[in-house]
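Below is how a single chain appears once it has passed through the pipeline. First comes the sequence as given, then the structure the pipeline wrote out for it. We keep one example in the README because the format questions we get most often are answered faster by looking than by reading.
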Amino acid sequence: MLAEQPDRVRALAALLAGPGAIRPADWLFVLVLLVLTAVLLLAVRLLWQMQRELTRLGRQLDRRPEPVEEPPAAVEQTPEPVPIMPADLPEPVREPEPPPELRAKPAQTVIDWVYPLEIEEKLLDAVRTGRHDLALELFDQLENALHASPDDVFRQVLHNVTLNMRQLMYDFNESELDPSIAGPDLIQQIEQARRVEAASLVRTFADRLSGAFQKRASQKQSDIVVQAKTFIEANYRSSLTVNAIAAALFISAPYLYRLMREEVGISPAHYLNNLRIRHATRLLRTSEKNVAQVAGEAGFETEQCFFRQFKKQMDCTPNQYRNRYSIADFAPHFGD
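Resulting structure:
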């Protein structure tokens, strides 16, 4: 075998030198060598593919989701047996229901209670026009309407009526009407008195004030004054002036002023301003219009003029008056 080694070395050298240098006896050795090399390469490739496939299978196994445990089946509950009452046992005794008039009624909230605005306005109109008996009758209707109202509502209505009747007192001068008929602390007395006594205080005020207006109405007034009052009440919400009133009656402004002072007790401008303030207070109490809108609808040329006149007569600003006496929470639907 050692003797053959030189021949194999020669064969390899001849193969490296070129095909022309290989002898025919060495071709068999070269062919065997090539086959072994091809088998070795194929074996290496198969091993590499097997390793790659094993790696892929391992990754798939790692990604498999864990099995979800099913919840245990619900155990059916056997209903408890209903006890059977013997037929001869008497039925349980039930207490009789009270009659409808004695059943408890749900508490009435303030928001559901309707403010008696119509009765209040009729009462004030009867007082201002001197219809004494009608004024007292309307006050009794107002008191009956307040019979089932909450205490805070009852007193607020009396406050509003008292304040509006006090405003009517501005239609008199100091010599015509005694300011003490209302009293400076009437509101405080209404707040502290019991319901019956509070209503009696306001009724007495309405009695005295309507009597004063009745006394004035019994006095004869000239046709000019009657026409002037009618004209003012029909047009006070517009930009009306004393000169315009006098011109409509074909008289001079000074002559109208003198007649109004003598027969009504106040000047035409004072009478006009009272009507405007009275209408403004109603809008502030019953609507959500802002102060500028209220001033315009009441006939004031500017908001500043309205503010000044309102503060002078009511002793508070328009917004303060609304905060104290608004009735929008009690009656949300009012006409203008």
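The longest helix spans residues 27-63.

See the next section for the split statistics.
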